[in-house]
Amino acid sequence: xxxxxxxxxxxxxxxxxxxxxxxxxxxxxxxxxxxxxxxxxxxxxxxxxxxxxxxxxxxxxxxxxxxxxxxxxxxxxxxxxxxxxxxxxxxxxxxxxxxxxxxxxxxxxxxxxxxxxxxxxxxxxxxxxxxxxxxxxxxxxxxxxxxxxxxxxxxxxxxxxxxxxxxxxxxxxxxxxxxxxxxxxxxxxxxxxxxxxxxxxxxxxxxxxxxxxxxxxxxxxxxxxxxxxxxxxxxxxxxxxxxxxxxxxxxxxxxxxxxxxxxxxxxxxxxxxxxxxxxxxxxxxxxxxxxxxxxxxxxxxxxxxxxxxxxxxxxxxxxxxxxxxxxxxxxxxxxxxxxxxxxxxxxxxxxxxxxxxxxxxxxxxxxxxxxxxxxxxxxxxxxxxxxxxxxxxxxxxxxxxxxxxxxxxxxxxxxxxxxxxxxxxxxxxxxxxxxxxxxxxxxxxxxxxxxxxxxxxxxxxxxxxxxxxxxxxxxxxxxxxxxxxxxxxxxxxx
Length: 494
What we know:
The chain is an alpha/beta fold. The chain is 39% helix and 22% strand.
């Protein structure tokens, strides 16, 4: 090999942009060249990286090439975790194996690889590249997790496995990248994104184990533009005006036309798949979520924000009371024919006295208190008394006797209760500063996924969101007999 060629091969950026072949969106064989977004990520690479993005920007393809190059030229041990096993097999076959097979013969001869049927390339000089749905054991220099938001939402046990297993296999001075479109406002991907975005906004220095935030909006990609045809609907005219006025995002007529055309296909999923700003990405509910449509409308109508002060009105509480489990409480004011959801509280491992003290410390003027039908079950070790009887007898709190008289929510099947919740949500407005945790519960309350059949089961997934969702369902059932009409609520922006 000529000296000038050897010199170029020492340059990683040159190798990545000249050695490897991929297939483009049209299925044609092309040489891999970094796009502007891919170059921004490559040049800004930190030890821990999180990418919140629009679809089809090619970061997984870039990672396949980066890891293949590192395994081949740096003898690095690399792993790529995909959303599903089919995705893992496809990435290995269509991205990694394809790029390796199309390398110059002399480079492959200099460091030959063994192709493992399980989705692994092992190179003669010590590097390796493994593609699957999880990784545990060994040490890695590069780890990439594709569609981590979807993994967190659909397979929370797998997400925990990745965090406790795969992440721990990467030393502090090596490289982890997680990328995804958003999938609800909960789970590791949401939490990491929020923390990283805040750190970036505050311009705080990054430690080796801090996540560096990358956000790539749809409008940054020059391909997302078409020739305008016809007028835009007024709601999109207002939306684009808000993007420019509040965020300084000025779009061309072609970009607006592209967005309009894409939205016709994606509907309510548009902002999740093609966000304009980071916060927008997480406003879309997760797949299989029971209240996805209702929350999309609540956000669109700006019914989640800061509520007006109606402290002269009583607050009614609605409880899901756990035994050795979480207890969740919603605090609601009835304002005319509307429901102002003003507060939310959840805790676990505490007795009834604790929650009664929470109510006292909140300082609201209370109206009715509603508990689930099993509030009349007798408590072990309480002389055969029910939880409703114990609450009525009360406890001494801060030197004063405090008690609660519970009403019992009528017993109703879970599916019917969910229907009642869907009916009542359009009549609700949420005070976001104090209801953030509860809102997350409702947005992430979803059906259980059947991994074997590849479809949603006809029952809710029992996870961290269940208690808040159950308490809200009890609220909906208790209020279902009230006649309601829709009135407009003015909320202050939050």
